[in-house]
């Protein structure tokens, strides 16, 4: 009897301490693992698609997923990382707020053993992120630059083509990769003159205000190249207000629905179509593979960009039609 009592006492102690062991993994407790989706801003429909697709793919793979909005603020992004680490998230799908400023956040997660997969935007460190899935922004804007010259080349033979460039966030590598790709083509043609270059932070309203101000100093422009489609729409609004929408061509980048529809309507001239869905799904898939044990990932995975203009827009489905 004494031996039987001792056996049950030991069994009870094992169950007690075994059940509260802090080293127990989530899979052992039966709780689903969690993926954090941290994006630069949800004030842009394009990033909403990126975030929601990433979260949906993570859920389809069996994970809990939560979206965090950094509102283009690296300090707020830092708070989200702290939250993700403390809350026990198993992977982070990141759309960084700043190529340099976001490094410390990604490194913080890495130090805690949490992989970070960057989507669309990169961090300037080969060590911080497990993998970065990025649009080929430079090549995409080389194509836009070629189309820009092709579209306006006839005028350049008789008079300078005066154009404006509206840049995105100055701390984002995408801003400069797009600008460099565009200028690698256009700067080779002496008939094209850049009369103003200004940042509008990838924001539609800011781009409208920026172009309204530029038009006061340079009323006779022929074209506007914008670093994303939100700014292209803002620039187009400014041109409409100034009565110049028909004579000034607007070129964007992203492939956002409103710009695609504007191209269909003969308003915006062209855009570079990225695939936020491809980047988001790839990031979620890689996170799943990491959690299941894979460690060998390419540091950067490029995603192709397609030139969409008024000549080929019919090849792309209108989201308003079934």
TrEMBL record:
Molecular function GO terms recorded: carbohydrate binding
Localization: Cell envelope
Signal sequence annotation: 1-22
Species name: Spirosoma endbachense
The keyword Signal is annotated on this UniProt entry: yes
Highest taxon, organism lineage: Bacteria
Chief location bin: other
Domain Periplasmic binding protein, first and last residues per copy: 35-294
Entries under Pfam families matching the protein: Peripla_BP_4 (PF13407)
Name the UniProt record assigns to this protein: Substrate-binding domain-containing protein
Keyword Kinase: no
Source lineage: Bacteria, Pseudomonadati, Bacteroidota, Cytophagia, Cytophagales
GO CC entries: cell envelope
